[in-house]
Amino acid sequence: MTVDKDVLQKVEKQFLLEAALSELAALLGHTLCDPLSSELFCLESGLSLAKRDKVVHYLQSLVPTTSEIKLVTLKRSVLKLVPELSNYADPVFNGLLKILIKEFAIELNILGLKS
Fold first, then answer.
1. pTM
2. Count: domains in the chain
């Protein structure tokens, strides 16, 4: 089986762009525990935008009925929606919640989530 040289070059270019973006973001203080954007979080963690959006829509759906929720309760509900998030360490999962609340201006107080 031969791999097209153009395909390899495109993959290499994509890898270089992702690596450069991650390096620049790290210089600005980005980590998975304290991300600068949800897109960077998704890129580095492998979370699809569709799954990110599921979490966003769930968080937004809570706002009309509640202004605060316990982190443990929220995490349990989110993991039912997106089970693969259970593979994330607690600080990474919390980083995802923090950036989604900030980026999408979700007015929800998560009890136990440190800023």
1. 0.87
2. 1
